[in-house]
Design a protein that fits this description.
The chain is α/β, with parallel strands linked by helices. It contains 7 helices and 16 strands.
Length: 310
């Protein structure tokens, strides 16, 4: 360790500066009247990696998950996936009767289950949305937890969308903690793959709240890109967020593939009107019928799907 005297002002006052001629593995910082401070980047990296491992081990969300259909009516060879998306519970612009109808239908239809593709509650905490909240965000969360509790093993999967994610952005609280006690299948952050076990059959469902490739001319392009880029083995590809309703089927390598845009319950959306997105949101209400004894895969309006399964 070397030491030098350094003049620090115009009065000629000096300060002793100590330094090493070699770059040490543990950097030492020397301050007057204090023990040396050691900064070791390798040690810091070791601690950071340990914390990262702890946080990762406690992550509730999944990349993939499995759900087995609860068979209430063994005489029926079909199961019904109720596609639920962009409910925006709590907003003054949301059709809460539509949401209730979808939930009651799921609870009361044998062999049915709920697939939630995100933005389950509005959580409007910025950008003027706070003035559209019929009930405050904390009561929206209580409401969500009670819905999840009652659905129980009929709640197959949920995707965390951008509106609930604002919880994390402003407070560090992750919205998936609202669901983990009750969702029977999987919880996905933004997107994920649900492996559906329906009787003797297995189907792979790619779910994303939002994805690139959006087109007003071909609303299913984003579903196609999700399957091609992220989940090529998917039998069903569902993308929400844009409050668009529709479905189509494509033949890929000799197998049926479904693309679904599930719509919304936020049917009176001032933001969408002001920004030229759409006059109003398109009401959710799509059911996917899955064969349980033989392979069968078909999307249809929810009432038709319920009649088909029953």
């Amino acid at each position: 360790m070397k030491a030098e005297r350094l003049i620090i002002n115009g009065r000629g006052e000096e300060k002793i500066i100590r330094y090493s001629s070699l770059l040490p593995q543990s950097q030492e910082i020397h301050l007057p009247n204090r023990d040396p401070i050691q900064v070791d980047w390798r040690r810091n990296f070791d601690r950071i990696k340990q914390i990262q491992e702890i946080l990762k081990s406690c992550d509730i969300t999944q990349e993939e998950g499995e759900y087995r259909v609860r068979v209430d009516n063994p005489s029926s060879p079909y199961a019904l996936g109720v596609v639920f998306s962009d409910a925006h519970i709590g907003s003054s612009t949301t059709d809460h009767q539509l949401i209730q109808d979808m939930l009651e239908l799921t609870l009361n239809t044998p062999n049915s289950f709920l697939i939630d593709v995100g933005d389950t509650f509005d959580n409007g905490i910025w950008g003027g949305l706070q003035f559209e909240q019929t009930i405050p965000p904390y009561m929206q969360r209580f409401t969500i937890k009670d819905i999840a509790r009652e659905l129980g093993d009929k709640f197959a999967a949920v995707v965390v969308g951008n509106h609930p994610e604002w919880m994390f952005n402003v407070s560090g609280e992750k919205p998936e903690h609202l669901f983990y006690e009750d969702v029977a299948g999987a919880i996905f952050a933004g997107m994920g793959m649900l492996h559906l076990r329906a009787g003797d059959q297995t189907y792979h469902i790619a779910m994303a709240h939002n994805y690139w490739g959006k087109s007003k001319l071909n609303i299913h392009n984003t579903c196609k890109r999700l399957r091609e880029v992220e989940y090529p083995e998917a039998d069903v590809s569902i993308v929400g967020h844009e409050h668009i309703w529709g479905y189509m089927k494509e033949m890929i390598a000799g197998r049926d593939v479904l693309y679904v845009r599930p719509g919304t319950a936020k049917t009176e959306d001032r933001y969408a009107r002001m920004h030229g997105i759409a006059k109003r949101g398109q009401k959710m209400g799509i059911g996917i019928v899955f064969g349980m004894t033989e392979r069968y895969l078909e999307a249809m309006p929810i009432k038709d799907a319920v009649d088909f399964v029953k």
